Amino acid sequence: MILSVSRRTDIPAYYRDWFFKRIEEGYACVRNPFNFHQVSRISLKPEVVDCIVFWTKNPVPMFEKLPLLDPYMYYFQFTLTGYGRDVEPGLPDKKQVLIPAFQTLAETIGAERVVWRYDPVFFNARYTPQYHLRAFSGIAEALEGYTERVVISFLDYYPKIKKNLEMLECENLEEESLGRFAGELARTAHVHGMEIVTCAEKADLQKYGIAHGSCVDGELIRRLCGCSLDVKKDKNQRSECGCVESIDIGAYDTCPHGCLYCYANQSSRAAAAGRRRYTAESPILCSEILPEDKVTERKVKSLKRMQESWIFI
Description:
With about 325 residues, the chain is of the alpha/beta class. It contains eight helices and 13 strands.
């Protein structure tokens, strides 16, 4: 299987000890987001985990324990934007901490295994297209040689973050202006040796040099594993999403970053309440197994398809 760690919260930044305790014990439990008392028990043994996809805005807490992941293949989706603390209040300084962290991570595991995410992109009076182009160019210059791909997406308007989006006072670009903006991003990425792709975007930007991409990327995982995989498109994601199937072990309403555009928290109050329930010893993130829970072992297996060798005499 492919393990997602995690679309729902920043496990590398805040829940490192829980994750490595789960690796040590060889399993994790996950609540069904739509059925609270339905819990899956998932094996995390190396023989069934083909690849781990980490999602983070701050991987620094992971660094000292990365050697514990030697039995696994993995890569990082590292979100690094030009927004200030008015939008991303919980992040360390980007120039002093996060850009050096990106560089260190790439030097440790390889540029192919650290994917830069500049997303989501939105526009308002402060964060104009010109602002984004300057920020994107500055980060791309700093990351040249440290990544092979950058992923962009434009802000999706989720109902549960309506109040936050009203605070951002977002503005829409006309199609022609958006195309010019995308073309400038593509030129900058290519100058710095990066492929640029979109994440779950309806807009077709290929004529501007930006292809449709995927975050849980079947092709990348095949390359990293060195073999074919029996993978299918993830039917639980949006139709525009190109990701292959994965199992996510995170939990919603637990990320303290406080980013105003985040879809994974109902509110900062809900995230704080989730964080207070955290213990590294529990098999389930920011929760406990309750007497009324129904825990089911989820059947998982390796998706690798090893090629047979034939010797003709």
